[in-house]
Design brief:
Helices cover about 45% and strands about 5% of the residues. The chain is mainly alpha-helical. Helix 11 packs across helix 12 and helix 16 packs across helix 19.
């Protein structure tokens, strides 16, 4: 405007046409730097200014302080507001001006390859998740916190809504467990998670919090399938809620129906069914099985046509241990039969296969972190967006350097520089690690006690903690310290600090700033969707052919990279805190085929150095 001697009002009268509602004050706020264009209408105005001043198309867009910010105002027909927010990031700026068929093509591509992923398992999962049928146990905390020992419920109460359902056709979606079943589940969880076994009982092995939460969920799905209506889309068995009890689980007919029901839904048997049978065997094992030690469960069992005959109940009353022995043998035989025919439904490598097939998987995946930095928003103008971008960058960088499972990365605590670090004994009690500054090594150190790992009993640890100094490579310390000093506080807002390194973006509806497993996985997928998957319609995204995936895939990338570079299962195992046998079992197919040539290449480095 200064170059052409125009005021903002003269420019406004020139570019805004008669009848248009664009406000002249908006243009003034752009000039003053108080606001920036966000809508499609605003970008149309920018395009006219570029034409008036003979600038190339996109000149002003390239100067915006938030390059990856999505525009609003796209014409997406009758798509819901929630889906619009997910789609907007991945649509080109000229989406609304494209022909209808092209817009349909773009939306379909985004839905298939970015939002849901295009694997068979993703399509199955998307369809199955719409059919809700589980039994929920509200007296037990899921995912985080402490598993409640026993819900405070009157077992004889008739006021509990789900208990009042007499007609299974009334059941739809997820319902709360009836009081007696909830008490049985709470007793099982207490039995498998308490430090000391109750007097008079025996057990073999203890469940951790994650394992207990998983078993609650899986058993809830089984009871939900039994209770769901046969006339519903779930096609359950229609057992009334008041008849559900763990005593049902010693009858072969119940398990055979459930196994076949799952096979009909999925089309084949998988390891899920084998794992469930292993749980059944553990619950009925002689001397240590929880069901085996609770014969009173049989009092609540009633005959179910086609599943449990009156004669079977009578036999169990006469000889409880004999009935448990018979079922234990039945479950073992079914497990062997399923092992012969089960298939793998979800190939964990499929979403990242394009990376694993590269000569240097780590270098290929690192392109995502470069993409994040390339599209980093201006911190002064967009502090929260910049904080989220830095968090995304550190999620991937720390994951690539540490090779941790998502649980250990999610629960990693922070000790800022200058603060006294948490003692190793205290970290053992909390079963988590900590990021702290090491004056001795003059660098940021990660210390995680071995008990915090899923495979804590592995020979890799030898009861010693995991300790690693993060390398100050490619500005890692710069962004690490900026996140600790400024960005993390922006994300927390006024919420209570949970003490973990990674925190959620706190909003008005947030109750807790700490990530749980589901939210952490969702945050990781969002990073990959926005920065990892190459979008041919917008030109954004780092890697062609990549699909949405979670944090666990980083371990696959690290192990495969080292295996390809060295051919050593042992060295690959160091990167993911595991044993060579595990690496060979999971990643052996990525070992270079010409092993002799690989060995010769390593040996030849000596001659080249000479």
């Amino acid at each position: 405007m200064r170059r052409f001697g125009e005021s903002y009002w003269q420019l406004y009268r020139t570019i805004v046409r008669l009848g248009e509602t664009f406000d002249d004050k908006t243009l003034l706020l752009w000039v003053q730097g108080e606001r920036v264009p966000r809508s499609l209408t605003s970008f149309e105005i920018l395009s006219r200014i570029e034409g008036r001043y003979r600038l190339r198309q996109g000149y002003f867009k390239g100067k915006l302080p938030h390059q990856s910010r999505s525009l609003y105002g796209h014409d997406m027909g009758d798509i819901s507001a929630a889906e619009r927010r997910r789609l907007a990031w991945h649509l080109p700026d000229n989406f609304s001006s494209l022909p209808f068929s092209k817009r349909e093509e773009i939306i379909e591509w985004v839905r298939r390859f970015i939002i849901s992923g295009s694997t068979d398992y993703r399509r199955y999962q998307a369809a199955a998740i719409k059919q809700r049928y589980a039994i929920r146990f509200p007296g037990i905390t899921y995912g985080v916190g402490t598993l409640s020992p026993r819900p405070q419920i009157n077992p004889d109460s008739t006021s509990h809504n789900p208990e009042a359902f007499e007609d299974p056709d009334l059941l739809s979606g997820v319902v709360d467990a009836p009081p007696r079943l909830a008490m049985e589940m709470a007793d099982l969880i207490r039995f498998k998670t308490s430090t000391l076994t109750a007097i008079g009982f025996q057990r073999n092995g203890v469940w951790g919090e994650e394992t207990a939460s998983q078993k609650v969920e899986h058993l809830g799905l089984m009871f939900g399938a039994l209770a769901a209506s046969p006339a519903s889309v779930v096609k359950g068995r229609g057992v009334p809620l008041r008849q559900l009890t763990f005593g049902l689980l010693i009858f072969p007919g119940v398990w055979d129906w459930y196994l076949q029901w799952r096979e009909q839904r999925r089309g084949f048997y998988t390891k899920w069914e084998e794992d469930m049978l292993m749980v059944a065997q553990a619950l009925t094992r002689a001397e240590v099985g929880w069901i085996r030690q609770h014969p009173e469960l049989l009092k609540k069992v009633q005959p179910i046509e086609g599943l449990i005959a009156p004669e079977e109940i009578e036999f169990a009353r006469r000889d409880w241990h004999g009935a448990c022995d018979a079922f234990h043998r039945h479950a073992a035989n079914r497990s062997k039969e399923i092992q012969r025919v089960m298939r793998v439904h979800r190939d964990p490598f499929e979403p990242i296969m394009v990376i694993l097939e590269a000569d240097s998987p780590l270098s290929e995946y690192r392109k995502i972190t470069d993409e994040i930095l390339k599209r980093m928003p201006d911190e002064d103008r967009y502090p929260r967006a910049a904080a989220e971008a830095v968090r995304s960058f550190l999620l991937l960088r720390l994951g690539l350097h540490l090779g941790l499972r998502q649980k250990n990365l999610r629960q990693l605590r922070l000790c800022p520089r200058g603060h006294f670090p948490t003692s190793e004994r205290r970290l053992e009690d909390m079963k988590c690690g900590e990021l702290r500054w090491s004056d001795r090594e003059n660098g940021w150190e990660v210390l995680i006690p071995s008990i915090a790992f899923k495979n804590s009993g592995s020979s890799f640890f030898g009861q010693k903690p995991f300790r690693l100094i993060l390398p100050d490579l490619l500005d890692l310390y710069k962004y690490l310290e900026a996140y600790i000093d400024r960005h993390r506080g922006v994300l927390l807002g006024s919420a209570k600090d949970p003490g973990t390194f990674f925190v959620k973006t706190v909003k008005t509806t947030s109750l807790d700033a700490a990530y749980d497993s589901a939210k952490f996985y969702e945050a990781w997928r969002t990073v990959i969707q926005r920065y990892g998957i190459y979008n041919p319609y917008t030109g954004r995204g780092a890697i062609k052919g990549l699909l949405p995936h979670g944090p666990h895939n980083l371990r696959d990338i690290l192990a495969t990279h080292i295996l390809k570079q060295t051919g050593s299962y042992e060295q690959a195992s160091y990167a993911i805190q595991d044993t060579p046998d595990v690496v060979q079992q999971h990643y052996g197919r990525f070992l270079p085929q010409d092993k002799a040539a690989l060995a010769a290449k390593i040996l030849n480095q000596v001659w080249e150095a000479a």
